[in-house]
């Protein structure tokens, strides 16, 4: 059987969609995490071999598109190339996860996608097929509007309140009640004692405080929404996009959050011809569309 395949290589799972060359879905499968940094090179190679065995078991894969974070990592691309060669996969390509997310969210059409989860990035494509991005610089110097940014800003606001030069905030009480972060040492230990996911985990507390009209939390939300609007504007200018769709992706934008509400309002005020929309399809479907283009 001849078929094409798209792969969404995520940090917690890998989703594969197989379809006829015309695009009719034939089979789907789910494998383990695709993040080489978290699982190590040996397990990453084993995952690729498992994936290839699955594809070869279905028949002849005429085109394979894999989307994943970390594609700039040379060791990762080397391992992918080695395993693709080993299993006889001739027509394949590896692209960034933002590429497949955009194509899936807008069903392959031109437009912009803003992704806000633990991190954030804005990515777009114009009618000429040109791509552009803004953001995606990581948590140390970027990630505007992400869960990490909200959590970091919350901790900073609480620290200022503790020192007496920042406005008092409901966030101080929420951190104390939920996480027992009720003194300076505990806050410092929490902020610097783990990875960025524990900072991003504080985002719901910012949403909760904003829902109770805490001025500090509301300002954190608004500041990040404005910055996210800036990311979208930058991509629109690079691509010459004056009107079209902006797909909202990631947990902070796909759910009914105050951040989403504020972002949509800011977009309406600054870029009224760019319409914020729900994603039409998922990233694996986007990878499949790109695989079809490879025929």
Give a structural overview.
- The chain is an alpha/beta fold.
- The protein folds into two domains: 2-107 and 282-293, Nucleotidyltransferase, domain 5 (2-Layer Sandwich), CATH 3.30.420; 110-279, 2-Layer Sandwich (Nucleotidyltransferase, domain 5), CATH 3.30.420.
- It is 50% helix and 21% strand.
- The chain contains 13 helices and ten strands.
- Helix 4 crosses helix 13 (283-293).
- The protein is globular.
The CATH homologous superfamily of the largest domain is called: ATPase, nucleotide binding domain
* Mean of pLDDT: 94
Biggest beta sheet attributes: 5 strands, mixed
- The DSSP helix count reads 13
| Number of DSSP-assigned strands | 10
Quickly describe the structure.
The protein is an alpha/beta fold and 295 residues long. The protein is built from 13 helices and 10 strands.
Topology:
Elements: E1 2-9, E2 14-19, E3 25-31, H1 36-39, H2 41-58, E4 60-68, H3 74-86, E5 92-96, H4 97-105, E6 111-116, E7 120-125, E8 131-135, H5 147-163, H6 170-179, H7 184-192, H8 196-200, H9 203-211, H10 215-239, E9 244-249, H11 251-254, H12 258-270, E10 274-277, H13 283-293
Parallel strand pairs: 1-4, 4-5, 6-9, 9-10
Antiparallel strand pairs: 1-2, 2-3, 6-7, 7-8
Helix pairs in contact: 2-3, 4-13, 5-9, 5-10, 9-10, 10-12
For this entry, give a set of tags:
295 residues, Nucleotidyltransferase, domain 5, 5-stranded mixed beta sheet
